[in-house]
Design a protein that fits this description.
The protein is an all-alpha fold. The chain has helices spanning about 10-80, 90-120, 125-160, 160-250, 265-335, 345-420, 425-495, 500-555.
Amino acid sequence: MTSVSISIGNRILLGFTAVILVILALGLYALAQIGEVRRSTDLIVSRDLAVMHQLEGIREGQRRMSDLHDEATTRFFLRALNREVPAKEEPTIGWRRAASATETALAGAITNVNEYRTQSQSAERAAAWQRIGEILTAAGVELRGIRTTTERQFQALDASDLATVQSAETALEQAKESFVRTMASAREALDEAIAAGQRRVGEVYEESRISTMAALATCVVMALAITGLIRRSVSRPLESVMAFVGRIGEGDLTGRIADASRDEFGRLGSVLNQMVEGLRQLASQNRAATANLNAAAAEIRASAQEQAASVEEQFAAVQETAATVDEITHAGAQIGKRAQEVIATAQATAQTSQAGLRAVDETARAMDAIREQSEAVAGNIVALSEKTQAIGEIIATVNDVSERTHLLALNAAIEAAAAGESGRSFAVVASEMKALADQAKESTAQVRALLGDIQRGINSSVMLTEEAVKRVALGKERSDTTHATIEEITARVQESVQTFQQIVASTNQQQLGIEQVMGALQNIRQASQQTAAGTRQVETAAANLSELATALTALAERYRL
């Protein structure tokens, strides 16, 4: 990407301003050319019209002079015939004024034509004006000749010299015809000048059109060059950003955008680098949290399996204790039935008492083992509860990471919307990030629900274990009582057979105690079954938690750090 610090908006604005300036220059040049065409046209037309009006004025003056001359000769012939002459100004006076005005107009036309010749728009026009000037100069000579001949005729009229009047009339007619032809030639020359002016106007228009087209082509080339430069300064950085975003979409978080510019692409590159760094940290934290979660799930599962084994052993011990107590009960029954044979079988009774004592000792030891195992189960359950709390903290961390991912995705979507069309692919990546964050959040919710189930199972196991410990303690107390009773029975059997009635009574009491022990053992067995069921639930939850941790690990492994 380029290191130019001008923003994209300013680049486009500068390019647009340059194009507008080029168009404005073209417009000004076209207006200048149009003004030149108009000025040339107005100048040619105004000069042509001015000379045309002057020529018409000269012709009109010549006709006025002719009319006044005819009126003067008519008045002469009327006087010669003694006819009445209208009383008005003498025609000779009017003729002289008309002649002076015509000569003045002719001189003015010659002056204008000479001036136009020096300021002509083309060589053809200059030649035409020169010819018109020569013709008008010749017409001036002829007009002066007409005036001289007419003055001579007027003098002959005043002198009543008819011969001179007639000879002058013939010369005047020839001079007038020559003057008319000369003026006609001047008009034809003017028409040629007008045609040359029209051709010059066409040439000026064609030159202006060609120069305007050339300027337009130059402006188009400059506009295309400016557009190409703007496109080059925008498309290349955009392609680099799109390629970088594509790599992010494929899971490559190892790259960075190297851009030191301060334009929109520079800021976008910085934002993308920050986003990638955040994603890299997020992925790393996610991997670490997932690894911790997997390890914790494995520890929970192993602990649950150990607890299940302990519960199975406890259940077997309870079954064995129950069998032993059942044997004691059976032995007590035999003692009752064979009370009459106690004396004969005192030794056997003593031995049986010793066996009962050993059985009670074994029962006490079994009770102690049950109590220790129950306490171990309680300790394991407490440790399991602490680990579930640690897992809850890990899940909270994962949920926080998901929230940060969601926030980063939202910020990325806002930045993509601000970039407009060039940020559309980046918006897709932001949407994928948001979907990943939502999926991680749902997974943490599922894990949290599983942990809640595990915590409830653990609390239930703790309560059951505490109840089992209490009942084992009660059974231990009763086992101690039974032990004391058996010792007493043994002592009495050994001391005297005569105390048989007491032994029978003690045996009955022993039977009652054994029945209570059997009830306690039944309760312990039920508690063991419940503990085993809770342990199986914990193991199942730990297996689910391990599968979830594996899925999170697979999601985290999608990105290369």
